[in-house]
Amino acid sequence: MSAFIEATSPHTMNTYGRLPIAMSHGQGCRLWDVNGKEYLDALGGIAVNTLGHNHPELVPALQDQLSKIIHSCNYYHVPNQEKLAAKLVELSGMTNVFFCSTGLEANEAAIKLARKYGHDKGIEKPEIVVYEKAFHGRSIATLSATGNTKIQQGFGPLVEGFVRVPVNDIAALKKATDNNPNVVAVFFETIQGEGGVNPMHMDYLRDVRALCDEKDWLMMIDEVQCGMGRTGKWFAHQWAGIKADVMPLAKGLGSGVPIAAVVAGPKAANIFQPGNHGTTFGGNPLAMRAGVETIRIMEKDGLLDNAAKVGAHLKDRLEKGLAGAKGVKEIRGQGLMLGIELDKPCSALTQRAADAGLLISVTADSVIRMVPPLIMTQAEADQVADILLPLIHTFLSE
User: Fold this and answer.
1) pLDDT, tens digit, for every residue of 337-392?
2) Are 194 and 367 a contacting pair, CB within 8 Å?
3) C-beta separation of 40 from 14 below 8 A
4) What is the pLDDT of residues 15-70, one digit of tens each?
5) Handedness of CA 302, 220, 194, 334 (dihedral sign)
6) CB 341 within 8 A of CB 352
7) How confident is the model at residue 2 (pLDDT cuts 50, 70, 90)?
8) Nearest CA to 58 among 38, 34, 83, 28?
9) DSSP-derived 3-state class of residue 185
10) Quick count: other Cβ atoms within 10 Å of Cβ 21?
């Protein structure tokens, strides 16, 4: 290109700390900006672009759907709603699904489910256990459930009804809820995303499941970021051999098309009745086709196994490449959801990586996060490591 195109958005609200980049198009795990610069995508639209960009089977399916019907309100049945719901029930071992459009919406619905569950049991002021460093969204209710005072600041008063505990500490959970008859649910991410790629321990998950069964609480597992095959199983909590009562999903479910779901087990499936909850865009024919096709392609192409294998390879490369490096606190995560925690804020690395042709993010101030498309190959994972490792070493030496 002969002329440089400046990436600016003067008429949109200044709600994002954007890099000076505007994307033009993509193919597989690669993107090109409006000036023709190529990037290896290790961010996947923040765990959204499951099948990468311009997938040869997804795009024609969406084009076909666009030519038929894009939106139908929920006064009527939407055939692919039932098809996608049945598939999610099969994959999760749960029973029913509510469709919406974003992870925030799914988490908001989960909070409403828990409160209604409590009210149906005669509890006037139901309370939900939530976690330090959690992130569930930016609406007032989900912001209140989130464990980040920095993003809560300026939006008080927050919604009451949440009991906060640290991760992976069953004694702390029991102590915080002891003799509290108002607790109705425990709500958490299997692997905290925005909080810094913090995994829940498998034994802890099993202990929480047992406690929820003992106390008749709902176990509500936010799989918005870590679900949909990202860790090598459909849902990250399945590594612990447990089932949720309520499971919000979004992000990777439609491989880029806005879609979310709340999957419910027997304890929660019939709490909502007509008039209790709803959404305009949720479950629309285009989003449902995207979800159906995404799962079909994931199964056909073995993308869960790919996520596990390529993710393990990338993690191994990172561990070996950063072994003994001063300033690296921990490398953690599973499958293609990985985080590298440094001992100092490292947001500058997002721009440096982009300059070097790699897309990543930094979350929780000091954690480099990688959540690439699940189609990423081992060779592409090697390229990620080859670009990123020198950048980290240089940054830590400054």
Assistant:
1) 999 999 999 999 999 999 999 999 999 999 999 999 999 999 999 999 999 999 99
2) no
3) no
4) 999 999 999 999 999 999 999 999 999 999 999 999 999 999 999 999 999 999 99
5) negative
6) no
7) low
8) 28
9) strand
10) 16
User: Is the bond preceding residue 79 a cis peptide, omega within 30 degrees?
Assistant: no
Q: Angle 223-224-228 (CA atoms, 0-180°, nearest 5)? A: 70
Q: At what angle do helices 285-300 and 79-92 cross, to 10 degrees?
A: 40
- From the centroid of its chain, how far is CA 221? 11
Specify burial of residue 124 (Cβ count, 10 A radius: 0-12, 13-18, 19+): exposed
Q: How much is the pTM?
A: 0.97
Backbone angles phi, psi at 340, to 5 degrees: -120, 110
Handedness of CA 359, 376, 55, 52 (dihedral sign): negative
Query: Which positions ≥6 away from 223 have C-beta within 8 Å?
Result: 189, 190, 235, 236, 237, 247, 248, 249
Residue recorded with tokens 């009804």: 161
CB-based burial, 182-198: b 16+ in 10 Å, e otherwise: ebbbbbbbbbbbbbbbb
Query: What number of residues does the chain have?
Result: 398
Rounded to whole angstroms, what are the CA distances from 222 to 157, 260, 351?
A: 24, 11, 30
CB 224 within 8 A of CB 246: no
Tokens, residue 130: 């939530």
Token pair recorded at residue 287: 């989003």
Q: What gap in Å lies between CA 235 and CA 66, rounded to an integer?
A: 29
Q: Cα–Cα distance between 12 and 135 in angstroms, integer?
A: 25
Residue in 311, 284, 286, 293 with CA at minimum distance from that of residue 253: 293
Please enumerate in sequence order all residues whose Cβ is within 8 A of that of 258, keeping only pairs 6 or more positions apart, or say none: 101, 102, 281, 287
Angstrom CA distances, 141 to 115, 155, 186, stand at 12, 11, 15
Q: In the structure encoding, which two tokens stand for residue 342, read together? A: 């440094």
Alpha-carbon distance of 383 to 387, in angstroms, equals 6
